[in-house]
Design brief:
Blueprint: E1 2-12, H1 16-26, E2 30-41, E3 51-53, H2 55-68, E4 72-77, H3 83-96, E5 97-105, E6 110-111, E7 114-115, H4 121-131, E8 136-137, H5 141-148, H6 153-161, E9 166-174, E10 177-182, E11 188-192, H7 202-215, H8 220-240, H9 255-265
Parallel strand pairs: 1-2, 1-4, 4-5, 5-8, 8-9
Antiparallel strand pairs: 2-3, 6-7, 9-10, 10-11
Bound molecules: 3-hydroxy-5-(hydroxymethyl)-2-methylisonicotinaldehyde.
Amino acid sequence: MRVLAVNDISCVGKCSLTVALPVLSACGVTCDILPTALLSTHTGGFTGYTFLPLDDEMNKIADHWETLGLKYDLIYSGYLGSRAQIAFVKDIKRRFLKEGGTFVVDPVLGDNFTFYKGFDEAFAAEMLSLCAEADYILPNETESYLLTGTRDFSAALEKLSAVCPHPVITGAKAEDGYYIYFGDRGEQRMPIPCVEGSFHGAGDVFASAFCGCLMRGLILERALSLTAQFCYRAILRTQKEVTDRKYGLNYEREIFPFLQSLEAEARQ
Ligand code: PXL
């Protein structure tokens, strides 16, 4: 199985490609990368970070790949730095996704009900148009709100279902705990263990592990369950080890138990 991760390289802060590569490789799938930008750190909680968009390079990389005839079983897109990059990812999907392949979009927009730096309503509208081309989308509760304009998860899921066949709203805080809302057969929701507050990079660990589970043949519900458990354990460890949250999840030592459960259920 061959995956293409389209995401930035944040050198410090454990998110995007620095998470996708180790997690997907550990899952036993080849992970190629298309870097969208190079940053000294991610943009959440750091100041003075450097940011180099890689649009020109992305074009050249894609043109070279075409000469190699590369095709992917799954393309996973994450942080995109501009509306032009969103348009470019649509083109990447058209050129490099295998017939019948899977397109997963993590519509990275914000957290704590606010946009990440540099994003706004127009950007969210463009992201929604990318979601419309995806098989699976993985908004967190903030992104679900920014994409649909509603904080009601059932209503948001309904709106997202009209756009994409398998919307998944992660870390949704309801009255009685946290849930994953997903909608491939009407509305479903799965209770998940969760820790109060936001942990930077958790969405990227989730998306990467989820793609790994799909590539190993797990059905949606099992992929979500194993992935949620992995993220929860990584969050607990991060909390226990009292690392500054902006440096990301301490997920590394949770990879092994995650893989044990994955291998027990994998069908390919
Ligand atoms: O984790 C999402 C993410 C990815 N990449 C960059 C970010 C963020 C969130 O802040 O800034 C560059």
